[in-house]
Amino acid sequence: MCIQQIVIGCILGDSYLTKSGCLQIEHSIKQKEYIYWKYEKLKTIVRSEPVQVSRYDKRTDRIYTSYRFYTKAIFKDLRSLFYPTGKKIVPYNIEKILISNLALAILYMDDGGQGGNTKKGVIINIVGYDLQSRRRLQLAILKNYNIELNLHKNGQLYIPAKSYNNFYNCIHHFIIPCMQYKLSITP
Questions:
Q1: 56-69 residues labelled b (16+ CB within 10 A) or e (exposed)
Q2: Radius of gyration of the chain (CA)
Q3: Residue 102 domain boundaries
Q4: 132 within a domain of the structure (yes/no)
Q5: Segment 95-137, tens digit of pLDDT
Q6: Distant-in-sequence, close-in-space partners of 119: CB < 8 Å, separation ≥ 6
Q7: Considering the domain boundaries, does residue 187 fall inside one?
Q8: For a surface tag, which of 29, 57, 122, 163 has the fewest beta carbons within 10 Å of its beta carbon?
Q9: What does each C-alpha distance from 56 to 51, 97, 120, 182 come to in angstroms?
Q10: How far does CA 71 lie from the centroid of its chain?
Q11: Residue 108 resides in a domain
Q12: Which residues form the Homing endonuclease LAGLIDADG domain (predicted)?
């Protein structure tokens, strides 16, 4: 269950599932400690250690360096759930598969951060998802974790101060040291 929940959190966050069912995990060079943490947790199902890759971005005229690794091709079932038409969505059964605090913590470490006008306001950036996916994720988190979220027009899920303590209590045990900066304050 631990590996499955790590994978769910990764897919909801920054990771990509290939058509063959390999999970591609990639993070910037600044998050080297984080990607190696994921690698250690998933070591039994990966093909090789993270490798450093550089990519030219013509929009910014810069070269970006990151670390990347792939799992074995064992997630075709999840590929059909998360990419039914080729574009990543939040699956219709998300409330049945996003079931652990660990998965929620990984989603937050991938796409979360501080936000709002209060020290206890945090966001989860889900701008890559369509509106229906965002709503499904919002409702699943409310149902499974009793955390109220506001869905902003800019594609962010905002966790207001009144829900922060509950959110913090769900995830803080799983936030690794290099990602602690994403938690604004302890309740």
A1: eeeeeeeeeebbeb
A2: 16
A3: 2-182
A4: yes
A5: 999 999 999 999 999 999 887 666 677 899 999 999 999 999 9
A6: 184, 185
A7: no
A8: 57
A9: 17, 36, 37, 28
A10: 16
A11: yes
A12: 5-160
Measure CA 172 to chain center: 15
For the chain, the 3-state helix, strand and coil shares in percent, each to the nearest 5, are 45, 20, 35
| Helix axes 161-171 and 131-145, enclosed angle (nearest 10) | 70
Write the CATH number for 15.
Answer: 3.10.28.10
Q: How many CB atoms lie within 10 A of CB 30?
A: 10
Tokens (6 digits) for 103: 């998965």
156-159 and 150-151 strand pairing: antiparallel
Q: For 71-85, what is each residue's pLDDT tens digit? A: 999 999 999 999 999
Tell me, yes or no, whether 124 lies in a domain: yes
> pLDDT tens-digit profile of 129-184?
999 999 999 999 999 999 999 998 888 999 988 899 999 999 999 999 999 988 86
